[in-house]
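ERR on first pass: missing label on line 2. Operator R.T. fixed the label and resubmitted. Corrected input:
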Amino acid sequence: NAGVTQTPKFRVLKTGQSMTLLCAQDMNHEYMYWYRQDPGMGLRLIHYSVGEGTTAKGEVPDGYNVSRLKKQNFLLGLESAAPSQTSVYFCASSYSPTAEQFFGPGTRLTVL
Amino acid sequence: AQKITQTQPGMFVQEKEAVTLDCTYDTSDPSYGLFWYKQPSSGEMIFLIYQGSYDQQNATEGRYSLNFQKARKSANLVISASQLGDSAMYFCAMRERETDSWGKFQFGAGTQVVVTP
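pass 2 clean. output:
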């Protein structure tokens, strides 16, 4: 039981490049979330999903897209990376909206 | 608007002492949940404790307890008998039920705790 996994763990991009972050969970959770963590600002919700095929915007969605084609996977895409997207990205999942969220180990992304 | 406020950016505590981490929140939703997470230097987020807005008693989990004062909109975390391994960043978070019940979380900025021998 791996819980929530994220790939890659580290990535460096140049401005304008694109990439996809993969989140996978093996707990059969319906709800999945993408956050970014910046110094002094805590975690901010980017996008979330309440089930396969459904996604919704969070607090800071601009510049990101997501997809949930399979229940266990939640992908976060950056179409044209900007230095302002340098951050640590966390994926999380929960079995219900009232339950605690289980987090992945994070992806450290640097955009030059 | 900031919905979760953690006013202590950092604090030191001696081993075996108790420490209280402050958290105040802002919501008009009568149904909400409050969570505390720990983030050690390794970076992972670890769930500690949960308090529901309708819970009559304060939540406790081992050495962690939540001092829930609903009228003051305060949900302070108390760590008893601090250990060196408690050194970490601690985040308070809130989930409001809202009409869609999708469980969107909002996090505070965090409090860095350093436990000294």
